[in-house]
Amino acid sequence: MHIGNYLGAAKQWIELQEKNECFFLVVDLHALTVPQDPKTFSQTTLEKVIELLSVGLDPERCTIFVQSHIKEHTELAWILNTLTPIGELERMTQYKEKAKKYRQHLNVGLFDYPVLMAADILLYKAQGVPVGKDQVQHLELAHAIAKKFNTKYGKTFDEPKAILSKEGAKILSLTNPKKKMSKSDEPESMITLFESPESIGTKIMRAVTDTGKEIRYDPIKKPGISNLLTIYSLFAKEHIEDMEKKFQGRGYASFKKALGELLKEKLEPLRRKNEELRKREHYVKEILNQGARKARSIAQTTMEEVRKKIGLLS
Fold it and tell me: Which of 4, 155, 161, 189 could make a disulfide contact with 171, Cβ separation 3.0–4.6 Å?
């Protein structure tokens, strides 16, 4: 994860788990829609779990598990496929974009991704789903599928709504502040959550700014410094207007140095926790086992209801 993922998503997950019953799953079946190395795939999946725990998900307050450990996900996905018009999947923006990017690996799974996502959600009768703006269309489809199932077979699923982050949802690249920070870009364009303090400082000092020296928020005329101000504001929990006053007349170098120190301070606990959990794989796997047991119990109950309503022979 990079700081954009943290501010736009993970930070919100941590808040949601405090007052809600939350389920977080590492979607390894979805990951198979693009090429994966079988020799490293399981370790990569485990590292994703460690990331979630490192940023603050608490197994005492939420349920964490791996998608493929619950076979009901694929069973429900198949049933939902029979209710989903092909035209609905053909209009999915992410499919169109990925179809261009992965022409050599274009597969049915990539096309059918939103239906499996709907199954991930509906299986636990979720009422709200924290998503980024790029996933809203998929969630709207899940909502439509739930409504269609309920109309045809009787009330079964809640019709889930998107929970969008109000702030920090779009942190921009450090090297090109006109585009979103992305894991697929060069390492210099992002700050990852578990980077060394030295690397964080270097990247921030090299981050692209704008002409002039004024520390002023103006996303159109000054996208570089505006992006850095947004990052500072969200990590420091300070208003941008207050920071403009605080750094008035001090110049970009002074501001960048202060931002670098702030990020080092805020991210160091996450980095240390990540290092600790990497040494405790048995503990992490036990968390997954506990999460799978709880998730499986709910998933099995849901599927018993679904099978009965659609008339499958028991």
Answer: 4
Residues 17, 98, single domain; the answer is yes
Residue 22, strand partner residues: 62
* Active site residue ranges: 98, 180, 183
Q: pLDDT (tens digit, 9 = 90+) per residue, 87-110?
A: 999 999 888 888 787 777 789 999
Q: What pTM value is reported for the model?
A: 0.89
In a domain, 43, yes or no: yes
**pLDDT, tens only, 126-164:** 999 998 777 899 999 999 999 999 999 999 999 999 998
**pLDDT above 70 for 183:** yes
How far lies 11's CA from each of 14, 56, 292, in Å? Answer: 5, 8, 23
What's residue 167's pLDDT?
Answer: 57
Q: Domain span at residue 197?
A: 187-276
- CATH assignment at residue 225: 1.10.240.10
Contact 201, 260 (CB under 8 A): yes
Residue linked to tokens 């636990």: 124
User: What distance in Å separates the CA atoms of residue 299 and residue 292, rounded to the nearest whole number?
Assistant: 10
Three-class HEC string of the chain: CEHHHHHHHHHHHHHHHHHCCEEEEECHHHHCCCCCCCCCHHHHHHHHHHHHHHHCCCCCCEEEEEHHHCCHHHHHHHHHHCCCCHHHHHCCHHHHHHHHHCHHHCCHHHHHHHHHHHHHHHCCCCCEEECCHHHHHHHHHHHHHHHHHHHHHCCCCCCCEEECCCCCCCCECCCCCCCECCCCCCHHHCCECCCCHHHHHHHHHHCCCCCCCCCCCECCCEHHHHHHHHHHHHHHCCCHHHHHHHCCCCHHHHHHHHHHHHHHHHHHHHHHHHHHHHCCHHHHHHHHHHHHHHHHHHHHHHHHHHHHHHCCCC
pLDDT of residue 166: 63
